[in-house]
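Re: that chain you flagged

S.,

Sorry for the slow reply, it's been a week of failed gels. I finally had a moment to sit down with the sequence you sent. For the record, here it is as I used it:
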Amino acid sequence: MRRIVELILKGQNPSDEKVRGRAGMISGAVGITVNCIIFLMELIVGTIVNSVAIIAFAFNSLSDVVSSVITVVSFKVANKPADKEHPFGHGRAEYISAIIIAMVIIVIGYEFIKTSVEKIIHPSPVSFSLDSFIIVISAIPLKLLLSAFYRSMGQAIGSSALKASSFDAFSDVLVLLVASSSLVVSAFSDIQIDGWLGILVSLFILYSGFSIARKELSPLLGEAPDKELVKKIMDGVLEAEYVSGVHDLIIHNYGPGKFMATIHAEVPCDVPILRVHDVIDSTEKRLSEELGIILVIHMDPLNKDDEVVKSAQSVVDSVIKDFPEVLSYHDFRVVGEGAVKNVIFDVVVDSTVVTKKEIDDLSEKINRAVKEKDAQYNTIINVDRNYTSQ
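Prediction finished late last night. Pasting the C-alpha cells below so you have them in one place:
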C-alpha cells in the first residue's frame, strides 16, 4: 500500500498544498468507486435473502460513498488560496467535512436501529444461499484494502479526514463479519437473530460516527497543539543569539499543516534594539520556512544583571516554589525606589486555576508571601494560561 501512495505522490512534498489536494481527491475517488461496488453487491443480496443486517451494511456503504464525495469537495475547498474573507486560507474545510461525514453516519445508524427493533418485534425468516454468502464476505478484503489505503495516504499527507475514513472502513469490516454470521446461523437454525445483529451493526455505525465527530470537533474548538511542534518552536527560538528565555507560546490551527504561532522571547535590555530586532526577524523567517508555519516573535527586554532585580527575584523564587499550581513565571522587573518597590511579573498556571476568584486569590497569596519574606516588595502579578499543555 505504501508503494501505491508513493506512486500517487510522485516523490513530491506531501506538505505542499497542491500535492495534498490532488492526493486527497484521488483518495476520495477511490473511496467512491469501492463503496459503490460494495453498496450494490450488499443491497442486492440483502434484498434477496431478506436480511436487515446486510441491508444496513449496504446503506452504510452508501453513506461512505457520500462521505467520499464530501472528502473530494473538502480537499478542493481546503486547497483554495487565502482571500480577503479568509486571510489564513480554507484549510479547516477538512475538519468540517469530517464532521458532516460523522453526522451522516450517525443518522443512518439511528434509522437502522429503529428498523432492527421492528424486525425483532415482527421477525421474518432470513434465506441462506452459498452464492449470497460468498458475495457478502467478498466485501471484506475490499474494505480492508480501502482502510489500509486511507490510513497510508492520511499518514503521508497528514489528513485527519482520511485517517477518520480509514477507521470507518475498518469498523465496516467488523460490522460485515457480524452481518454475515446472520446468514450462517440461518443455514443451521431457525433462531431469529437478524434483528439483534442489525442493532449490533447499527451500534458500530453510531460508534464510528460519534468517534469521528469528537475527533474533528477538537481542533475547531481549539485543542492543545502537537507537543513536537511546540518543542521545535521553543528550541528554535532559544537557539537565537541574545535570547535567554521564551514564554507565552500560542499556536492557532487553520487546517492540517496550517499554523500561526506567536511567542515571547526574553532578550537583554542593554543590547542595541536594532541589533536584537535583526536577530529576531531572521529567526522568525528561518523557523517559518523550516516548520511551514507563520511565526511572530515578540521581544521582552529584561535587565537581569541589576542587583536590585536579582535581590527581588531571589525572594520571589523562594515563594513561588510553594505554589505547585504555578508552572513558571516571566517578564520580571522592579519599578520604584526607596522603602517600597513594585515587583511586576507574569505567572503561568495549570488547569486548576480557572475562575477570576481563583486567580485573584492566588495573586493575593503570592503577594502576602512575598511581603512576609521582605516587606519592601509589593507584587503586581498577571496570570497567564498554559496554551500548549506542556
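What I noticed first: The two ends are 35 Å apart (CA to CA).

Talk soon,
D.
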